[in-house]
Amino acid sequence: MNDTFMKEKPVFPLILSMALPMVISMLVNSLYNIVDSFFVAQISENAMTALSLVYPIQNFANAIAIGFGIGISAQIAICLGAGNKETASKAATHGLALSALHGVLLTIGCILVMPGFLVLFTSDADVIDLGIRYSTIVFLFATINTTNLSYEKIFQGVGKMKVTMIGLMVGCVSNIILDPLLIFGIGPFPAMGIEGAAIATGLGQVFNLVFYLIVYKIQPLQVRLSRKYLHPDKALIARLYSVGIPGALNLALPSVLVSALNGLLAAYSQSYVVILGIYYKLQTFLYLPASGIVQGMRPVIGYNYGAGEHKRVKKIYYVTLCMSGVIMLVGTIICLTVPGQLMGMFTTNPETIAAGKTALRIICAGFLVSSVSVTACGALEGLGRGTASLVVSLCRYLIIILPAAFILSRILGAVGVWHAFWIAEALTAGVAFFISQKVIGV
């Protein structure tokens, strides 16, 4: 494949070819999370509780690594589109070095903060002990993880989506294989319990990184990583963080939203908290393919923007929007026609299922229009406009939905929280369209 395929190949098959590996990667990662939790649950209920309590900090660390990685990918794609391989290589090298530094800081910070964080949520000494033992090992691999994710975004920035798909599968599959071996002590391996789960996670990241290093060595990329590019470039570093910081916040905002909504819903009944949790499990499978399409679109739109192909940039935006819209339409139809069956996958309580059916039918009214904000956020990040993307996400996850949920819950009860979803999606779509029109001219 030639170096200019991102501005020469027809848009729809190009985005499809870039997005499909990302969709598969995300599905594999979701499967890994389920299997990993299953094995940990076999240790004890306390071990599973500890894993759940550590997860928010793990998620925060990943958000920093992935968000900054999006900044690296965007700068690489834009520079390559402009024909400036030297600056693209400099962006990749700076990004890799800074990602490693982030990993060191995360290792120190997360290990230090974890004991105090755990006692905020439990007084069980065994759970706290398990959480500290697990998290200490996991965060010792933080530098490996941030470097690994940096390589992932470098490969994505040059359009090597299949490489990143295989890399993620190498990490996930090796982790799944190692989990039972190290947790329960199968064959020559000692039984290490929750420490074994943490080591398996870390080794999965090591294998993933080794895979990227091998591919980088045997398959030359359009960008090169070299010490000669390490001379500090303040303007370039600023551009990396201008997308990386908003990107990290974008990934962290859904967790903030769920915590806030749980606080509102718990005042009415614990079953509504359960329903919200079930909804987020269900919507993950709906938004996974949409997110995969957006990930595939990012380097394409950035490359064409850098190349000055503004008409093609608009076409890429609209094709991605239509693809996301089709997925959201299918999700809407499913939630309207079989909401009871969907809820029944996670609970047998008839009252929860009945209330859940109402929730899904109300919330899904915002699915189709949400494709505008999802596409706009990805496009803006791909163009290096991280702050504009953050504005859209803030409207979607905080500024509009939380006040709406608070006010409507006082009027309609818990059902008002469900109505806040589609209202927020509709209003945010208007904001996203306005910003996209200013930046892209759509």
From TrEMBL:
<keyword id="KW-0406">Ion transport</keyword>
<feature type="transmembrane region" description="Helical">
    <location>
        <begin position="163"/>
        <end position="186"/>
    </location>
</feature>
<keyword id="KW-0472">Membrane</keyword>
<dbReference type="InterPro" id="IPR048279">
    <property type="entry name" value="MdtK-like"/>
</dbReference>
<feature type="transmembrane region" description="Helical">
    <location>
        <begin position="359"/>
        <end position="380"/>
    </location>
</feature>
<keyword id="KW-0813">Transport</keyword>
<dbReference type="Pfam" id="PF01554">
    <property type="entry name" value="MatE"/>
</dbReference>
<comment type="similarity">
    <text>Belongs to the multi antimicrobial extrusion (MATE) (TC 2.A.66.1) family.</text>
</comment>
<comment type="function">
    <text>Multidrug efflux pump.</text>
</comment>
<dbReference type="InterPro" id="IPR050222">
    <property type="entry name" value="MATE_MdtK"/>
</dbReference>
<feature type="transmembrane region" description="Helical">
    <location>
        <begin position="60"/>
        <end position="83"/>
    </location>
</feature>
<feature type="transmembrane region" description="Helical">
    <location>
        <begin position="132"/>
        <end position="151"/>
    </location>
</feature>
<feature type="transmembrane region" description="Helical">
    <location>
        <begin position="192"/>
        <end position="215"/>
    </location>
</feature>
<feature type="transmembrane region" description="Helical">
    <location>
        <begin position="415"/>
        <end position="435"/>
    </location>
</feature>
<feature type="transmembrane region" description="Helical">
    <location>
        <begin position="95"/>
        <end position="120"/>
    </location>
</feature>
<feature type="transmembrane region" description="Helical">
    <location>
        <begin position="12"/>
        <end position="32"/>
    </location>
</feature>
<keyword id="KW-1133">Transmembrane helix</keyword>
<feature type="transmembrane region" description="Helical">
    <location>
        <begin position="236"/>
        <end position="253"/>
    </location>
</feature>
<keyword id="KW-1003">Cell membrane</keyword>
<feature type="transmembrane region" description="Helical">
    <location>
        <begin position="316"/>
        <end position="339"/>
    </location>
</feature>
<feature type="transmembrane region" description="Helical">
    <location>
        <begin position="387"/>
        <end position="409"/>
    </location>
</feature>
<protein>
    <recommendedName>
        <fullName>Probable multidrug resistance protein NorM</fullName>
    </recommendedName>
</protein>
<dbReference type="InterPro" id="IPR002528">
    <property type="entry name" value="MATE_fam"/>
</dbReference>
<keyword id="KW-0812">Transmembrane</keyword>
<keyword id="KW-0050">Antiport</keyword>
